[in-house]
Amino acid sequence: MTPKTYSISELAKEFDITTRTIRFYESEGLLSPERQGQTRIYSDQDRVNLKLILRGKRLGFSLAESRELIAMYDPKSGNIKQLQSLLNKIIEKRTALEQQLHDIRVMQHELDEAENRCLDALNQAQIKEK
Predict the structure, then answer these.
(1) Domain end residue (candidates: 9, 32, 61)
(2) How many of the other CB atoms lie within 10 Å of CB of 89?
(3) Cα–Cα distance measured from residue 105 to residue 111, given in angstroms and rounded to the nearest whole number
(4) Has residue 94 been placed in a domain?
(5) CATH number for 31
(6) Predicted confidence pLDDT, tens digits, the chain (130 residues)
(7) Are 10 and 38 in contact (CB under 8 A)?
(8) Cα–Cα 20 to 30 A to 31, which of 15, 91, 107, 120?
(9) Among the residues of the chain, which ranges form H helices?
(10) Global pTM value
């Protein structure tokens, strides 16, 4: 049985991305298709890597972080090192998001106070005008 292969347009359509995006990931060394003349032929591993890159992007991972996780792929070991590293990165991202949410709430509170001060001052100025 021959392994499944994909064209660049098939992957672009499947993942709803542009072929330019796929070529960018290739230029970054994250995908390594075979060539038949000018045609790129992507392996199932390339497809899995692309899926991991896009999932990492949605989770806020940098390309360097995705590259690091992909490089750890080792099915013989059950991918324990890769999974532990992914779990650590998820914890880091969650902690950073929680801090950002806190910072946003503080800023919203400060904006509310500034808005109220402005409204009070505006009301006072309008009362004096009358």
Answers:
(1) 61
(2) 19
(3) 10
(4) yes
(5) 1.10.1660.10
(6) 778 999 999 999 999 999 999 999 999 999 999 999 989 999 999 999 999 999 999 999 999 999 999 899 888 899 899 999 999 999 999 999 999 999 999 999 999 999 999 999 999 999 988 7
(7) no
(8) 91
(9) 8-15, 19-27, 44-58, 63-71, 80-129
(10) 0.75
